[in-house]
Amino acid sequence: YKTGVWKGRKHLFLFRDYRGTIHFDPASPEKSTVHLTVAGASAVCQDTWVSPSDLKSIQSKAFEMMNVAGHPQLVFSSQRIVPRDGGWYVVQGSLKIGGNSQPVTVNVKLARQQPDALLFEGNAEVRLKDYGLKPPSAALGLIGTRSEMKVEFTLRATTVR
Q1: Bridge-partner residues for 138, per DSSP?
Q2: Quick one: pLDDT band at residue 145, thresholds 50, 70, 90?
Q3: Does residue 79 contact residue 34 with C-beta atoms inside 8 Å?
Q4: DSSP summary character for residue 146
Q5: Are 47 and 2 in contact (CB under 8 A)?
Q6: Can you list the positions of beta strands (E) in 17-116?
């Protein structure tokens, strides 16, 4: 989310390269586990409200902020899963960004269950400053980025035999 003269706008990044394991037990979801690794350099800025050259600059600043050169992966590992109403779960765990690991809470919904795949949707809020990351700014601070970032995802997990 932007601050200053661009307040009200937001950047949209799509991470294209991720891998993980989910051990999901529908009968005892609290015994389930999640481990997800995301390639930081796979982030692609999807903004339609900036010029193509600004897209490259925004993406470059995001890579620099996440320190993908020194720590190429963002890693989430669950520690506790609590079932909620309506197919929702509260997943507590740790998220590592730029070499710094912090606790995070993720809201996850089992959106669809098929014989060979599960579709999960979810969201979380991540504060950049909690990870020692400085939100980017430009134009002597007239354009900035909030520390709070909303993360939304859809993940399809397939059965491995």
Answers
A1: 143
A2: confident
A3: no
A4: -
A5: no
A6: 18-23, 33-39, 43-45, 73-83, 88-97, 100-113
* CA proximity to 149, closest of 133, 57, 88, 157: 133
Q: What type of residue sits at position 89?
A: Y
Give the closest residue to 6 by CA, choosing from 137, 152, 150. 137
Amino acid at 90: V
Residue with tokens 């089992």: 110
- Tokens in use for 131? 């990870």
The tokens describing 33, both together, are 């586990």
8 A C-beta contact, residue 62 and residue 47: no
pLDDT digits 0-9 by tens, 65-123: 888 999 999 999 999 999 999 889 999 999 999 889 999 999 999 888 888 898 999 99
Q: How many CB atoms lie within 10 A of CB 6?
A: 18
CA-to-CA distance for 68 and 70, rounded, in angstroms?
A: 5
Structure tokens at 155: 């993940």
CA of residue 138 relative to chain centroid, distance: 24
